[in-house]
Amino acid sequence: MNIKDIKLGNKFELIVYNTSGEETKPSYVSQLEEVIDSKTILISAPIFEREIIPIPIATKIKIIFLHDKGLFSFKGLVKGREKRDNLILLRVTVISDFIKIQRREYFRLNWIMPVKIKKVQASVSSNESQKEDFYEVITKDISGGGVGLISNHFFSVNDIVELHLDLENKKICTRGKIVRSAVYDQDSSKYDIGIVYKGINMKDRDAIIKFIFDKQIKMIQKGLV
Question: 109-218: same fold as 3-101?
């Protein structure tokens, strides 16, 4: 993976480092405007709450982006600014390798949406059906590694379940394992359930990661994260 593998217009999440080398908040949204060479790019200056963020020259930044091969990050150094028409651009030098963000680092998005879930028997293969009712529940959060649910129905830790997720533009059916099941602290008649995906294919996992990344970018643009 290198900078020339990224399409022009690809959205970036941009994190600024302070002089002590610590990540600062909030993060911002930018996008790739031009690739000068294998180590130099032009990106749009980030805008937050309709104001251009004046990132100083010589500032170190971290860029996170979604690619067909997964979620990646790299570090850059702001080397200059320029203006093209009405667009302010930052000239950035790539100063690190590209790192694929692993499962343990998946961003967890607090998001509410309906999900269908049912318990399956361990002896039943993923290609076989089973006479078990689906329950309608809602998500509390979702990540590329699993999902948190609020349910009226109790599930036990280690239960294997089938999940039907609707990500607005893609429907996903996968299995999961219950790793947490407790009374919901905001309503004792409901259950707080944590699930890790089990046997999910990479295309479905990538679709979930893309859904989360797109939502996160929109939230950053609105100043919500």
Answer: no
Q: What is the pTM of this model?
A: 0.72
Domain segments of the chain as ranges: 3-101, 109-218
- Going from the C-alpha of 5 to that of each of 32, 60, 183, the distances in angstroms are 11, 22, 47
pLDDT at 129: 47
Label each residue of 168-182 as H, E or C: CCCEEEEEEEEEEEE
Sequence-ordered strand ranges (E) for the chain: 11-16, 28-37, 40-44, 47-48, 51-52, 60-67, 70-84, 87-94, 99-100, 109-110, 114-120, 135-142, 146-151, 160-166, 171-183, 191-198
Interatomic CA distance for residues 12 and 32, integer angstroms:
7
pLDDT level of residue 108 (50, 70, 90 thresholds):
confident
Spatial CB neighbours of 141, under 8 Å, sequence gap ≥ 6: 108, 109, 110, 111, 147, 148
Report pLDDT for 49: 75
Q: Which two tokens stand for residue 202?
A: 């990479």
Kindly state the helix (H) or strand (E) to which residue 201 belongs, with its residue range: none
pLDDT in tens, 140-177: 999 999 999 999 999 999 999 999 999 988 899 999 99
SS3 27: coil
Q: Is domain 109-218 classified as CATH 2.40.10.220?
A: yes
Among residues 200, 109, 190, the alpha carbon closest in space to that of 153 is found at 190
Q: Which CATH class is domain 3-101?
A: mainly beta
